[in-house]
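Working notes for the structural subgroup meeting. M.R. asked for a predicted model of this chain before we commit to crystallization trials. I am recording the input and output together here so anyone reviewing the notebook later can reproduce the run.

Input as submitted:
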Amino acid sequence: MRILGLDFGAKTVGVAVSDELHLTAQGLEIIRRESAKRLRQSLARIEAIAQEYQVGRIVLGYPKNMNNTEGERCEQTREFARMLERRTGLPVILWDERLTTVAAERHMMELGIRREKRKEYVDEIAAVFILQGYLDSLPRES
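Returned structure, recorded in token form:
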């Protein structure tokens, strides 16, 4: 069973998936929508991905402020988590995503990806960082 990682944004959702051993996260895609309020197609695509990859849980980036407070984006993310749980029947874990977008941008700069292209991939890479952070926190069996 795999774990799905999501970076939920105003008009995009970056998607990553773990391997079956829960060691590594790989980027899958970016789900784009025209309006922040139009989530039905995004939810349907996430549900299809969860079924295709036999996902057992979802890790959703939680956008706390740098001073550890919660803003409007946190409430929107919690509502999206509730929608995901209803739609997929899977548990959704909120994972602190502070600095994941910065780390994703820095990683792409180090790889030499041009600025115009970085915007295309930043949400997917951020989803990988969110999921990998969660995977790294899991206890390992000896």
